[in-house]
Amino acid sequence: MSFLEDYYNNYNEDGRLLSRHGQVEYLTTMKYINECLSGIAHPDILEIGAGTGRYSVTLAKEGYFVTAVELIPHNLDVLKSKLDGTERIKAIQGNALDLSFLANDAFDLTMLLGPMYHLYTREDKVRALSEAVRVTKPGGYVLVAYCMNEATIVQYVFGSDHLDEVTEFNMLTPDWHCISEPRDLFEMVRTEEIASLDAEFPVDRIKLVAADGATNYMRERIDAMDEKTFAKWVEYHFSVCERQDLVGASHHTLDILRKRNR
Description:
Blueprint: H1 3-9, H2 13-18, H3 20-37, E1 44-48, H4 56-61, E2 65-70, H5 73-81, E3 89-93, E4 107-112, H6 122-134, E5 136-148, H7 149-159, H8 163-168, E6 188-189, H9 191-198, E7 203-210, H10 219-223, H11 227-240, H12 244-247, E8 252-259
Parallel strand pairs: 1-2, 1-4, 2-3, 4-5, 5-6
Antiparallel strand pairs: 5-8, 7-8
């Protein structure tokens, strides 16, 4: 069993996104999904790395045509358990690095909301993004999520007192970039690395968004908020989540790309 499969077999991803602090990332992502879908009469949607279906199942239950591709069998089983048979969704086991079973130019919206977290070489990142762009229609949107480096340095290395550990195991470059391997589960990037990946493809960036912003720096406080205060926090977050001076400090970012027309 891989490190990744072992992790997701024992991790409650739905629980994270349903927690109050996790809802900020979810609500932000859904906000921009809906913006991309606006004006498309009958969009075909693909989610690569659909996990347990938090986004795919939600969109399918809203009446959209969805194809959900997921690598981990356990996650796929959980996703399918949420369906009652009325949804227009195809759930397929597959790998973000090889979507050869999907046609070119097939989807109005392609979501790559998890795989980039777990790809550790530029070659694999380029390959995954290449496949996502390939299957997207000209003029269609590609949404790509990343885990960010600086939030990890601030919160994990210093905030959770892991400096000695990451130093002992040589997990940092001299310029404080996290060095990850598959056993570490998550790959961290900086905004300039995202821009460098985008430059490889016939896409235009629409927005780079802080999916959770400052939320994860104060999880306990966010989780303890009453409904009124939490609503105001989300309102504030939405007002600043596109500010490029703040994006790099978010734990998660959402890169919103549009495939160029030929």
